[in-house]
Structures are given as C-alpha cells and as structure tokens.
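Question thread 4412

I'm putting together a teaching handout and wanted feedback from people who do this every day. The idea is simple: show students a protein as raw sequence, then show them the structure tokens that encode its fold, then repeat with a second protein so they can compare. Below is the first pair exactly as I plan to print it.
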Amino acid sequence: MSRVSDTRQRTREAAANLVASGKHPHELTVDLIYAAIQQGSRTTINDELKLWKDERAKADALGADLPPAIADAMRSLWVAAVEQGEKVFSEHRQALESDLAALQQAHDELISERDAALTAADQLRHEVSGLHEQRAELQQQLASETEAKHDALGQVQALQQEVTTVRADMAQQLEAARQNHDRLTTEFQATVAARDAAFQVERDKANDRVEAAQARMLQETDAAREGLRQAEQQLAKLRQRSEEQQSSLTEMRLEIARHRRELADNETRLATLASMTVERDQLALELATARGQTAGLTAALQSAEARAVTAETQMAAGRKRKRSE
C-alpha cells in the first residue's frame, strides 16, 4: 500500500476513534487527526476527513427518522459496507500501482536501449563521414597522377558508379521502409482512435447505468423510509386500540421486514457497480498495451537504418581493397 493510501486509511480510523471517545464529527479538525496519526500531508488528511464527514452525515441523515435500534443497525451496516468498499478499493489500487511500476521499468529499459542504439548510429555516421573525406583526398591524388595511372582512375570511376547505384537502391529501400512504417503507424493510430472512441462510449454507458442505479437506489431508499414512517404511525394507532388487533400488528412487522430486505438489495446493487468500475480499468490496460506496439514499430525502423549504414561501410571497405589491388 502506498504512503498516501495508508494516510487516508489511518485518517478514517483516527476519526472513528475520536468519535467513539466522545467527540462530535463536526468538532474534528486536521490538527486533531494529524496529532493522532503523526504522518501524511495536511492536504491529504483534509480531503479524506471531508469525505468521512460527508459519509457520516449521510448515514446520520438516513437514520434520523428511524427508531434508535433500527438507526443503529443501519449505521452499522453502512460502516461495514464502507469499510469493505475501502478494502476492495485499496487492493485494486495496490495491484494497479504494481502494474504501473512494472510498465515504468520496462519503459525505462526501452529508453536506455534506444539511447544506446542512437549513440552507436552517431558513431557509425562519424566513421562514414571520415571515410567520405578520405575518398575525396584519394580522388584528388588520382587526378594528379600521370597517364600511367589512367587505368586505375577508370577503375575508381567504375567503383564510384557502382556506389552511386548501390546508394540509390539503398535509398529506395529505406524510403519504402519509411512509407511502410508511416502506413502502419497511420493504421495503428486509427485503430487506437477507434478503441478510444469505443472505450469512451462504454464508459459513458457505464456512467449512465451507475447514475441510473444510484437514482433508483435513492428512490427505493426514500420509499423504504416513507414506508417505515407510515408503519410507525400505524403502529402507534394500533397500540391505542384494543389487543384484538394483534393480527394487524403482525402484518406491519412483516412490512418492516420487507423494507429491510429492500435495503439489503440496494447494498447488492452497490457491489455490482464496483465490478463495473473494474471492467473499465481493464479496458484502460488494453489501450496501454496497444500503445506499446507503436514503440516496437519505431525500433524496427531504427534497425533498418542501422543496416543501411553497415552496408555503406562494407562498400567503402571494398573500394579501398580494389584500389590496393
């Protein structure tokens, strides 16, 4: 678990402990929490304390109109659900942080390899430039030779023509490779864009489903609270009546049990929404993998350029050997 997530968890624990010791939620401050946990930034503590107070206020508001026993039970369920959600979220975040660290390490290794390849290519280009300068000097010396070396000059000219032809062929091959790379890059970018668009659509749909589910859950919760309130009113009337109406009282108790089951169903829907969030994170990982393939195509193009430089070096060595003969 990262330092920030540990600070957030300990902030919640310290707040709960202070309330249990007699403090009211609105009396809790960043200084009190920091004095209790002795770690983390005050900004992180302030953000998490605000979230905790909002959750506490929602739980208190949910049980404001209920009998004390039912309100305490609902608060206990709410606290257990929040703690379970935080635990699951912490585990998922820890797994994502581990994957991110591995991807960052792989990216750093690729960057190092690319820098080494670029350095080697610069050295080879420098050597090729030196060979070109030597060739120019030899051409000047050959121009000042006597007529006895005219045959050797003809051979050099033939070699130059061959070099020109080979260079033209290499230039065509390199241009073809670059065009192929551009085509593949364009196709890949189009594929990535299509996946991004599909991901955005799926995410929007998921968000719509989440919002609809939350709205439906709030409506059902309000209906349950209204049903409980009406049940309490009817129960008060029944207590004033004679004991002959015990059967009606039993029906009201059954109605209260049904509303409690509806509240439990709402908790199940919340768990379903959490699983939808996990599916969205998996789509993000697939997008990162596709971007890694683009880096592989770039490395292939650099390898082709290195082979071209090697071929040019070999041709220069061949010309030198022929001049020696």
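The second pair follows. I'd like the answer to focus on this one:
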Amino acid sequence: MAVFARSWSLFRSALAVLGAEKAFMLYPLLAGLGILLFSALILGGGGWLVLSHPELEQLLSQLEQPSQDGDAPWWAYAAGALLLWLFLLVTSFITHFFLTALVGGTLERLRGGNPSLDYGLALARQRAGVILGYSAIAATVGLALSFLRGRDQQPGIGFLLASLGGFAWGVATFLVIPVLAAKDIGPIAAIKESVGLLKRTWGEQLSVNVGLGLIIGLPMLLLFAGTLTGGVWAAATEQPVLLIITLATGVTLIALLSLMSATLNAMIRGAVYVYAETGEVPGPFDGDLVRQAMRPGT
C-alpha cells in the first residue's frame, strides 16, 4: 500500500505539472500519428507492390509453402529479419524523437523555464543523430528478443529468456531518454549513464512503476470493459446510433488516457533523472516522495 500511495502522489505531482503545460500531450500524439502514418505507408506500399507485380505474389506464395527439407531458404529469413529491423528502427526513432522532445521540455519546466512546443522539437532535432543511433541499438535488441520469442511454438525457454531480457533492457534504459535530452553524448554513453544513475540511486523505482501502471491500468480496464459491454448490448438490442456513440466515446477516452499515461510517465522519468543526477528534488514534485521512490526497497 505504501508503494501505491507514493505512486499516486508522484502521479498527482506530474499531473500538476501537466496542468501547467498541457501542450506536452502533443508530443506523444505526434509520435502516435507518425507511427500510424508510417505503418499505413508500409502496408499500403506493400499491398500495392504485390497487386501490381504478380510475380512477387507468386514468390511470396512459394515461400509460404515448405520446401523439401521443410524449411524456407536462408535468404528469406535474412530478408524478413532486415525488413523487421528497419521497421523497428523507424518506429523506435519516431517514438524516441518525440519522447526526447517531451522530456527536454519537462526538464526545462522543472528548471523554472516556460518551454514552448518548438523548444522540445528543436532540442530533439539537435539530438536526431544520437536518437537514431540509440534507436538502432533498441531495434537490434527488439529483433533479438523477437527472435527468441519466435523460436518456441509454445512458451518455453526462449520466451522466458526474451521476457527476462526485455525486463533487463527496460531497467537499464529507464533514464536514457532524460540523459539524451539533458546531455550531448552518444547513445552507448547514454545507456551507460542510465545504468550508472540507477546503480547510484537504486531503490523502489520498479515498484513505483508497478503502482503507476495500476493507477492507469485499472481505469483503462474499466473503460475497455464498459465499452465492450455497452457495444454488445447496443448491438443485441439493435440500436445502431447508441452502438456508434458507445464505441466512439470508449475509443476516444481510451486513446486520451493512453496519451496522458505516456506523457506523465515521461515527465516522471524526467523528475527522477533530475534527482538521480543532482540529488535535488524538482520544485513541483514532493521531495520526500521522490527520495523514497529512489531509496533502497523497504
């Protein structure tokens, strides 16, 4: 309960900062729209290529059929891995670019400044090369974890290793984005800095993340259940207008909650970074709460 109480207080502190800088929510929104647009271009472009080139469709059909040894040619796996890596690289870059802009704006706000939307975007553009390098590393890790998960037809050792690897990667890179926003250093140095900061201030950070996840996750679950239940009931009673209103309202609220969650999570990381780096608690955040959040587990 103590962890949940601290998480709730950190959440409220971040919410107060967001109340003063509502434009911060535009960063995750732009990231989501960018990924959606890129995915649509990839899917649309791929569909157009297949439809306009029958020989390509035939080749794909052949690859789907097992060969004499029951396996696809090696180059098909290599091509698929390369395409997946490129997709992960671009989506990771888009995400990290706007997160860097968001955290950069948050750090400026915590320093007492009054950052505009352009401030964060300008900072992210200055760090674009480093963000791309970090995104390449993240894409490689993501590809490796995906490969481990895909090795087993059923959850087994590969799935377990991938889960542990993903957990460890998340812990190691928890403060990478704040480091990239605050310092002009390379991606590997940023990862090392993130690990070093967590080593020096290791504590209940993971538990606090669980608490924050519950704060957002429970309303998200209730919204999803309510939308599904209302939609099924409206469809069963043949009320198309109510069905449309229910689904539109539910999807909108879920999207807004997801957007707020992403924004607040990044802002809290910025506050934790300031304390981990300087030992000083940012003004809008409760000093005791941040210190307890980074204190060895109790």
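Top answer:
Good format. For the second protein you could add a caption like this: The mean pLDDT is 78. The chain has one domain: 2-60+75-293.
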